[in-house]
Amino acid sequence: MGKPAKQHGKLFLPDIEFYYVKDIEARCLASLLGIAESMYNQMKEGRVPELKIATRTKYNIEYNEDSEVWVYGDRRSVRSAKTVKGAYMLLRMAYVIGFLKEQLNANKSSTLRELYYISENWGMAKFNEQQESDRLVEDLEILTAFQREHFHIRPEEDGATVIGPLRIREETRRGMREIHCQDDVGEGGYQIPVNVDKIEFVDHDAKFVIAIETGGMRDRLVENGFDEKFDAIIVHLKGQPARSTRRLLRRLNTELGLPVVVFTDGDPWSYRIYASVAYGSIKSAHLSEYLATPAAKFVGIRPSDIVKYELPSDKLTDQDIKALNAILQDPRFNTEFWKKEVTLQLELGKKSEQQALAKYGLDYVTDVYLPERLTELGII
């Protein structure tokens, strides 16, 4: 029997879950309708309607000492019907709120892509491209303090997979079921659902969680039995991780008290993957307290690893160099560790991949590199 998991919120018994979810949806809908009501009241009073919303740039994120994550600061942008662009935005927002009201009342859901196509029937409120509709949904998240999952809006990408000594309970079409993420799954692992908060952690025998960027390296660890040898929960990030993946990592850390480490390639794009897990992304800083895991530690590949292990490497591209210089200006990376590593990489002019460790054999990463680094980090 593994360690019992602490309960999360009120999401376990079906009847409690029903009322808890319905309460969230009711408050979410009320908040959405409050935006429309505010615009209506402004027009009723003879004023040009406008909305103020947090500015989403790296210059408007600040470190929250209490939650230990990066959140939006006090800078605000004004969306006003005084401009044609602003008028269109407010019109589209009204249409989206109306659509979400119908969707929530009917207990239906839709994808971000479907929302974009649904607007084909909205006349002048039609979106020109999906980026516009995606951004508007993010605006609504910021304005309401609810997540798109509460709007019943689903992403196109799915969560990745988990394999390790963890038993969960989830509701399926055939009722509640328990799944052990080692014994009851194949080598593909357990598929992370869109709404991770509906999962109950039952028990576990894990000592830590390792989040891995690439599928090839994830498969190497599974094939080598890393999860069994080190009592590790292996989470595949699938590149830039989906919200559901980041939410799961946070829950494993905060609810089960498991250390989380992130293992990526050694390039600026991979460092940003780590940042989205540990610090929260700039794009979704309004959800950092819900998604980010500030205690997550970076395993590598580090620029210093290229030198230490004499790893095969590629020359940095102009885009890589530009991205590394941007990281040096990013407040999320304002630590001595990152300044030293990024500066070294710029001096080396090189980048390397996780699988470059195969230079020393297929078992080297699980027998030597990871045990050494995890010991250094105090994980094992």
Supply the key terms.
Dna Topoisomerase Vi A Subunit, Chain: A, domain 2, 18% strand, 13 helices, alpha/beta, DNA binding, Arc Repressor Mutant, subunit A, 380 residues, 4-stranded antiparallel β-sheet, Topo_VI_alpha, 2 domains
| Helix percentage | 40-55%
Determine the CATH topology of the largest domain: Dna Topoisomerase Vi A Subunit, Chain: A, domain 2
What spatial form do the alpha-carbon principal axes imply?
Answer: globular
The rounded distance between the terminal residues' Cα atoms is: 22 Å
Relative strand content: 15-25%
Please mark out the parts with pLDDT under 50 across 5 or more consecutive residues, or reply none.
Answer: 6-21
Tally of distinct domains: 2
Strand order of the largest sheet: 11-8-14-13-15-16
GO cellular component, one term: chromosome
Keywords: ATP-binding, DNA-binding, Isomerase, Magnesium, Metal-binding, Nucleotide-binding, Topoisomerase
EC number: 5.6.2.2
Cofactor: Mg(2+)
